[in-house]
Amino acid sequence: MSAHEPTVWQGGWWRHARRCDSPNFGPRPEGTAIDLVVIHSISLPPGEYGTPHVEALFTNRLDWDAHPYFQSIRGAEVSSHFFIRRDGEVVQFVDADARAWHAGRSNWRGREGCNDHSVGIELEGLEGLPFEPGQYSALVHLCQDLRQRYPVADIAGHEHIAPGRKQDPGPGFDWGFLQQQLAWPNRCFPASLGAAAQRAVHPGVF
User: Fold this and answer.
1) Is residue 201 part of a domain?
2) pTM over 0.85
3) Residue 182, φ and ψ in degrees, nearest 5
4) What angle (nearest 5°) sits at the alpha carbon of residue 172, between those of residues 170 and 148?
5) At what angle do helices 175-182 and 133-149 cross, to 10 degrees?
6) Count of alpha carbons within 13 Å of 71, Cβ hemisphere only?
7) Which ranges of the chain would DSSP assign to H, the alpha helix?
8) CATH of the domain at 111
9) How far apart are the first and last CA of the chain?
10) Is residue 199 part of a domain?
């Protein structure tokens, strides 16, 4: 634990996030190292931003009859550790020391069940569409602080840990920019990024 950590973390709660507790979590397997960050995208209804529905979903308060799309996810009990809104606000639902329910059936580099050893970060957005500068800025700062507290060795998208089943965050997410800003080695990122990892930096993000 670094000297910097007590000013950033209160247990597994990030001090820069707004806390909104979810009941959808559990303990991690004993002795599990938290070594993976998984990036997702979500918007409810899909493509609509700034609504209260994501927070309602993760806290089991979503009105399933409020929109026709919600019938397709009716009864879902899910959560993510963090949610980054379009304006860069970060909301935290689950203590990062605990196991959130974000990955589902998943495998990363031969290891099944990514919920056990990962931190899930949802970006408000729709797969295939771009994300906002404020979201990248918040994501970079969060990932940096996560790596100070936990032995994070890898970062991947939901599409990488559940290929064929999930497509988020999708081609609108700039992995190359994230890698450049974090300055983490290539081995930390999915090998399949290819040309996307060589994209130019977004102007004006910082």
Assistant:
1) no
2) yes
3) -80, -30
4) 80
5) 50
6) 3
7) 5-8, 53-58, 133-149, 158-161, 175-182
8) 3.40.80.10
9) 28
10) no
Helix, strand, coil percentages (3-state) for the chain, rounded to 5, are: 30, 20, 50
Please indicate, yes or no, if residue 195 is contained in any of the structural domains.
no
Could you give the CA distance from residue 178 to residue 135 in angstroms, rounded to a whole number?
11
Q: Is residue 197 part of a domain?
A: no
Tens of pLDDT along the chain (206 residues) come to 444 445 899 999 999 999 999 999 999 999 999 999 999 999 999 999 999 999 999 999 999 999 999 999 999 999 999 999 999 999 999 999 999 999 999 999 999 999 999 999 999 999 999 999 999 999 999 999 999 999 999 999 999 999 999 999 999 999 999 999 999 999 999 986 643 443 433 333 32
Q: Which two tokens stand for residue 78?
A: 């899910």
- Report the alpha-carbon distance of residue 148 to residue 145 in Å, rounded: 5
Question: What long-range pairs does 191-199 form, CB within 8 A, spacing at least 24?
Answer: 192/160, 196/171, 199/174, 199/175
Q: Which residues are catalytic?
A: 122
Q: Residue 157 sits in which domain range?
A: 5-23+33-186
